[in-house]
Amino acid sequence: MSSFTSTDRRFVSRRDFLFRAGEGIGGIALAHMLQGEGLLASQAACDTAGITSPTAPREPHFRPRAKAVISLFMSGGVSHVDSFDYKPMLEKHHGKPLTGKGKVRVRQGFPGPLMKSPFGFKQYGESGKHVSELFPCMGEMVDDLAFVHSCQGRSNDHVLAHYEWNTGSLLMGHPSVGSWVTYGLGSENQSLPGFVVVYDHRGGPFSGPANWSSGYLPAAYQGTVFRSAGDPILDLRPPGEMVSPEQQRARLDHLAVLNEEHAKKYPGAGDLAARIASYELAYRMQGCAPEAVDLSQESEAVKKLYAMDDPVTEPFGRQCLLARRLVERGVRFVQLYSGALRQQNIDTWDAHSNLVENHTLHAKEVDRPIAGLLQDLKQTGLLEDTLVVWHSEFGRMPISQRGVGRDHNPGAMTAWMAGAGIAGGQSIGATDEFGYKAEQQVMTYHDLHATILHLLGMDHTRLTYFFNGRHMRLTDVHGEPIPQIVG
Q1: pLDDT for position 105
Q2: Is-contact 385 420, C-beta < 8 A?
Q3: What global pTM score does this model have?
Q4: Are strands 333-338 and 408-409 parallel, antiparallel or unpaired?
Q5: Count of H helices and E strands in the chain?
Q6: SS3 assignment for 304-373
Q7: In percent, how much of the chain has pLDDT > 70?
Q8: Which residues contact 266 (CB under 8 A, 6 or more apart)?
Q9: Share of the chain above pLDDT 90, in %
Q10: CB within 8 A of 284, min separation 6: which ones?
């Protein structure tokens, strides 16, 4: 029984009383937790319907060093030994078999001999960091970057590896890191999405929308795609000739009244709250988003800084400049993709057949724009509380593929981070002498995600969502923040 009747009050035992009272205490505790999460029915609607937006700003677990994240994802697998992980032993042992590493597994064909980098390396900055000739502009920024050379994944398949580094799981259907961030912190601008994705002008990356899915989190936390060519947001402008702004507002207000009545009749309708919030966000975006994505407002000097004066670099330059404008306006997480799954070995960083041609093309597309983004964030002060992360889904083998390419290598990858008070000029962790496997201070995607959350003021072990009978985490039951980054 959940309540006392007039006939049993005299006969209730102390044990029964405490047990029954405990049911109410549990309800009070549950209500307190729901209120803290903004999930009570009375708090579940947006402005006009009395429900708080799911992306309303929330307090972090502790003082953050970053307010926003810009993720630069190089889709296809950048070769670490041809970019930032200098390996002179590859030149010394060029043409010899890779031995002493156990059974060497490759994705395609048979293991070839060791292959030296076809690109020269040069030392940059006070740190003397070796950087490939592929990235001369980023090379000039090395003292602002913290390189992590010991990243390691589990899959050598593009799709599964994209899931790994974006969602923390090999399986499709889990929320992306951007979704977890907006779930935990909300957004500082309620007229723009909290999580925005801008993919390559040639098309989407491997595994497509699953990279920015909200998975089992509410739909309000999934990434919103902005295009990098043409109109960034399709169907944004209202049909002015057919519906005036006043009529559109009146329709939404009437819909809000109906939704509020429904919410009172059926309290706790979380899906309805998310739907209402999406309608309201779409309406507010009509007034706010056109200005945010209007790059014509920027000076010619700024556009040149982002390499928009060159047809090769202009597309990714637009992506980078758009990212700066979005974080400047309070968007919490922006993810940019270089590489599109159209003609796989040409339009992505997937350098099986011709490493020199592939990496020369894609490095040129992104080098100046990324350096420009870092310089702009630095000179405007935004880099102090914006975290920039550069990575791929895996590295590539130090052995050759048919003498001209390199196969997939989940055992080693280089990533770098900048901003958010991170000490630059660092080289964290290390691979073996050939770059075949991460060897010192091995970092998994769980460690990378724990680090991102920590810099945003969130304890990755406390950011949970109850689903399928357990408290789910971005980092599952693993992960430790990288001490050299968060220290």
Answers
A1: 87
A2: yes
A3: 0.84
A4: unpaired
A5: 13, 16
A6: HHCCCCCCCCHHHHHHHHHHHHHHHCCCCEEEEEECCCCCHHHHCCCCCCCHHHHHHHHHHHHHHHHHHH
A7: 78
A8: 272
A9: 71
A10: 190, 191
